[in-house]
Amino acid sequence: MSVQSPSAVVMVRPHRFAPNPQTLADNGFQPNADGHDPERLAAAAYDEVTRAGAALEAAGVTVHLFEDETEHRPDSVFPNNWISTHSGGHIALFPMYTPNRRTERRSDIVELLKTTYRVQDVIDYSGLEYDEVFLEGTGAMVLDHELRIAYAARSNRADPIALERFCTNFGYEPMVFDAVDGRGIAVYHTNVILSIATEFALVAADMLVSPARRQEVLDRLSARGRRDVIALSNAQIDEFAGNALELWGSQGRVLALSRRAFDALTTEQRDRIERSARLLPLDVPTIELAGGSVRCMLAGVHLDPRPGLVEPRAALVDDAAVVSVVE
């Protein structure tokens, strides 16, 4: 099993999904959703999460699926922004940029992780919100868990003060850079332009503004056994090709990404990825209207199961999530 690829994830299935109007201003990946029927959007997003969770389970990935029936958390389908987990039994809770995302932090999710896995401490950075300091989890950062590097594009969602504090607490080296898309708009979340797997990385290096910093990032990504750094174009980034997450399934590593992202990859890029991980495309077109894709939907679990518990799972039964534990 790879340090980089977790074998379990947390997902949230929204009952009242909607593109978030508070994130529209600085999320260049979020189209204006005016004209869409809210009830149809919500129903479609619910079904997309259900199918995505089932596909991950079929690949042998443990899925802890939680329900969100509230109307005031439009982005709750993206839990990776408010929680991250780390080897050694550590959990981090993060400060969120937009006010209507701050209630996404849920104690029941934290408690499930505590009862199912070895958790030593929970470090809560959410109090930084009162000082207008934000760091939106593994959206704002892309973590190299093996080399202990936290890559972060400067944005409203990635404050250097919060990043430095996280890196000090969790033992990562911060690597900050400026990145803009083809329209000159600052990249709002690092995980739309960078995905780090065990033996390869996907990166839109041309979006990094500083040539010197770009080369430094490329050099670090290719260090110590990561034999392939796959360049993504601006057009591929617009299709969420960088928003992917490597996971450990029953047959080895899989790369979870959206169908839209999969279709944007060239045949050669797919072949290079599949030397190391099987591609697992998931259909989430409605959720992508919120400006995020598959990686944003998955909060990886990098924790050790408690003794006597093997692969805790959330089974999908009659469209309901039932958390079960195999003893």
TrEMBL record:
Tell me which stretches of the chain form a coiled coil: none
Recorded hits in Pfam families, A to Z, give: DDAH_eukar
Sorted alphabetically, which InterPro entries does this protein's record hold?
A: Amdntrnsf_FN0238
Top-level taxon of origin: Bacteria
Query: What PANTHER family does the record point to?
Result: AMIDINOTRANSFERASE
Mind telling me what this protein is named? Amidinotransferase
Originating species: Agromyces flavus
